[in-house]
Amino acid sequence: MYKSLLRPIFFKFDPEEVHHFTFSLIKTTQKIPGVRSIIKSIYQVNDKRLEREVFGLKFKNPVGLAAGLDKDAKIYNELDAFGFGFIEIGTITPKPQEGNPKKRLFRLKEDSGIINRMGFNNGGIALAVQRLKQNKGVLIGGNIGKNKVTPNENAVDDYAICFDALYDYVDYFVVNVSSPNTPNLRALQDKEPLMELLGTLQTMNLKKPKAKPILLKIAPDLTDEQLLDIIDIINETKIAGVIATNTTISREGLKSENKVEVGGLSGKPLRQRSTEVIRFLSEKSNKSFPIIGVGGIHSAADALEKLDAGAALVQIYTGFIYEGPGLIKEINQAILNRK
């Protein structure tokens, strides 16, 4: 129904406007008595064999929603009905910011991809916390970043503010230094600044009543040498793991007219490189830390490929937009069929 009826209609309109419309639609319809139960009965796969324990957390299934869709923690409770095992909100910054000028979100229909240059548009940490207080039992990841106006030499302060504010309301943290849409942000992936940032957050973490998992989200555009540095940094700082990968700045092999747009590319064109990064990190680290695999998952086969490459969990975003919520069920059923 989604791909044959709803998607053709949605794809006739501006992607960002459709995003806000579908959020309102999901939130409004689930207020109607019985609708949420119907959605759950259609899409959820509840089976003990899907459960995973990763970095000390128990996931009801290994299929999550990647950061970027529910940036401001607006509808995570409603999205949970579609069968996700966990939902990652953000990227959140200390202060509200509008992000980059519109138009900043582009479909690449011929390539089943999306280019975005949103620029961490969000309502700020205080607003996100207020919404997360309404959590009805969803396992939440908090993806944190720095404000655009904050210089890199002060970036640690922004991440620390977000960490402290979100600590009581998320189950794990994701340090985002890999978005291509905030000027100079990716420079924080270099070994020295990254060691300082992760070391500071881990020190704060260990002073809390109970330390929470901290993960690092990395770009797919890193070289093998940089990926080896990432392994060293994780082993030295003892953070919980990695999310591989964020969007790419590569435009190799694209057919769509919108390929000329500046920003991060997600979707099918990212699948192969994301899997390569997962496999490299898993093999070179001797599986010494968990990896969440994300990038180009548009089918159950794509998700199984990530898991086989070494991912403990997977996340979808662009695949959710192109394939619809049935993708979550398809992946979970494929995992069960392997048992």
TrEMBL record:
Membrane protein topology class: Peripheral membrane protein
Pathway: Pyrimidine metabolism; UMP biosynthesis via de novo pathway; orotate from (S)-dihydroorotate (quinone route): step 1/1
Tagged with keyword Oxidoreductase: yes
One of the Pfam families matching this protein, by short name: DHO_dh
Cofactor: FMN
Alphabetical GO biological process terms: 'de novo' pyrimidine nucleobase biosynthetic process; 'de novo' UMP biosynthetic process
Subunit structure: Monomer.
Name listed for the protein in its UniProt record: Dihydroorotate dehydrogenase (quinone)
